[in-house]
UniProtKB/TrEMBL annotation:
One Pfam family recorded for the sequence: BcrAD_BadFG
Cofactor list: [4Fe-4S] cluster
Protein name (record): CoA activase
This protein's UniProt keywords: Iron, Iron-sulfur, Metal-binding
Nuclease found in the keyword field: no
């Protein structure tokens, strides 16, 4: 796709002519973005056991979609849980933390980004971003508890007999959210089972889970300080029920972007890869 169709207008001139790739190997999904000053191409797949094999599969897909020759790739940056396993003998490669990559990616999708809420498969983060350059000012992470993460929502969807991809939409259909008081995975699951036994509508339970998860994320955001504009990234960012719950609980809108923010980390990695190639990096 044309770079102008997805990149913030203010950042188009910051893209370099060299072709670079960012690969974001998450706990459940792996994403990749190929970028130069003219085009942006994306690919996504399930994260496999072998991170290198997953990355190779994504890279092959990007080259096929873009028509770019492998020999024309200037640089690759790997990020995410599987970043340390990436290695290419024929292409210069570096690894960068997913926090820096999500910040840069969000910055190129919305140049005014100041706060990022990143909810992935196994953790959630709140990140404050410098809107002048896309660098991280401060962040906090919750990787000790799975509440509100993709894996937690997947479990809740199973308990409610929903597919994961419809859980958020069903939550939006609720007339009122069920009261889910616990923000602990184990106790929240027990509450869901109890509510089902009592005959509470599934939609109401789904809504209650999203609001309970949003309250947990709000605690992270408060620690870094809420500073609109907000970008919601990570694998859960496509969940409309979670987006609504976050906006209601935090009390501020989440900014729209022209590219699916699931790719924010990979896009940021690709932008950083261009800078590594030119010697400027972060």
């Amino acid at each position: 796709m044309n770079a102008a169709d997805v990149i913030a207008n203010e950042k188009l001139s910051d893209l370099k002519s060299v072709t670079a790739v960012g690969i974001d190997i998450g706990s459940r999904q792996a994403k990749a973005v190929l970028v130069n000053d003219r085009a942006v191409h994306t690919a996504i797949t399930a994260s496999g056991i072998d991170s290198q094999e997953t990355a190779d599969r994504l890279l092959a897909r990007l080259l096929r979609l873009s028509g770019v020759d492998r020999s024309d790739l200037a640089f690759i940056v790997g990020t995410g849980y599987g970043r340390i396993a990436l290695d290419y003998d024929d292409i210069r490669t570096e690894v960068v933390t997913e926090i820096s990559c999500h910040a840069m990616g969000a910055h190129f999708l919305n140049a005014g980004t100041r706060t990022i809420i990143d909810i992935g498969g196994q953790d959630s983060k709140a990140i404050r971003v410098d809107p002048d350059n896309g660098r991280v000012r401060e962040f906090v992470m919750n990787d000790k508890c799975a509440a509100g993460t993709g894996r937690f929502l997947e479990k809740i969807a199973e308990l409610l007999d929903y597919r994961l991809d419809e859980l958020g939409d069903r939550a939006l259909e609720a007339e009122a959210a069920a009261d889910i008081s616990s923000q602990c995975v184990v106790f929240a699951e027990s509450e869901v089972i109890s509510l089902k036994v009592r005959g509470v509508q599934r939609e109401a339970i789904a809504a209650g889970i999203h609001y309970a998860s949003a309250r947990r994320v709000r605690n992270l955001v408060r620690r870094v300080g809420l500073d609109p504009e907000i970008v919601f990234s990570g694998g859960v960012s496509n969940n409309k029920g979670m987006k609504r719950a976050l906006e209601d609980v935090i009390g501020a809108p989440i900014s729209a972007t022209k590219l699916d923010t699931t790719y924010a980390g990979a896009l940021g990695a690709a932008v950083i890869a261009q800078r590594f190639y030119e010697g400027s990096a972060l």
